[in-house]
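Action item from last week, closing it out:
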Amino acid sequence: MFLYSKVQPYPIKINNKNPKLAKYILAQYGGPYGELGAALRYLNQRFTMPDERGKCLLADIGTEVLGHVEMICLIIYQLTKDCSIKE
């Protein structure tokens, strides 16, 4: 079970658009070494752990990595806000 708080622990405020930088940061979101894949691996591996401490640890790590995914999404949104299709 997750408890979602709408407060960012590390506020992100980007005022300048930069679609090229957003393209590089997008690689951190998905892909084989991306944060989303890591979060899903941690959250799925917890079901195969034999002890409760291991399950709790993997659930906590997976939840933390989901927070990273949220920050990456916010960074990409702010970097591409008000960009044209051509950019």
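Closing note: The chain is about 60% helix and 0% strand.
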